[in-house]
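Review this chain:
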Amino acid sequence: MLLKDRIVWVTGASGGIGRSTALKLASEGATLILAGRQEERLHAVAEEIRASGASACTVFAYDVANQEEVQQTFKEAAAKYGRLDGMVNNAGILEESLLSTLKHDHLQRVFSVNVFGTLYHMQMASRLMMRKKQGSIVNISSIIGSSGKEGLSVYGASKAAVNGAVKSAAKELAPFGIRVNAVAPGFIATDMTGKLKEDIYRMRMGSIKMKRAGLPEEVADTVLYLLSDLSKYVTGQTIGVDGGMVE
């Protein structure tokens, strides 16, 4: 097992990519900390993991964009486990808005979760990882962070910020044995993308060279790689999982 006896924290673990990632990591031996706002859904994922016979897991329900709540939750986790081996910052929100209609509260919501929340968790995770001078932080970014898309200036800016944070944090934390990378999914088959209008869905398919949507499990596979020793000399990278998507 690639993650046997390792403790890994996953935010936004209640559905889509987060759920698939949690199940994948558990199947590879990780002891999981499942985090997010939706406590009932987090417990449902925890039950799936237990039913599969995989390692134990702990649920923490809190606002990932609230610094005080993040700090308090990390104190509780540190008291229970004493260390942290992996951090997956998956929690994020996507809201469309043209620049001409952009409002401050939209900007605040997206950046609070996608950027501030990610940085809060990177900060606290790295402090725990420094105890053993080893660890891996994986941030879920997006192809939009590098390619852009109309109507998604705020979302794209937030993911570009995540990519930039990865570059800087990787250099800062490398001397402590901590690696920092990002995974940038393209068009992934989730509940959200399944609700798109048929013409928009067809347009998205037309932009993908592999002619199909990606699966959450395929994103999870790349996260697993970055958390494991298979990537022990990889840091500061943003790896696309997009099937050759052209925007």
Notes: Strands lie at 7-11, 31-36, 57-61, 86-89, 135-140, 178-185, 238-241.
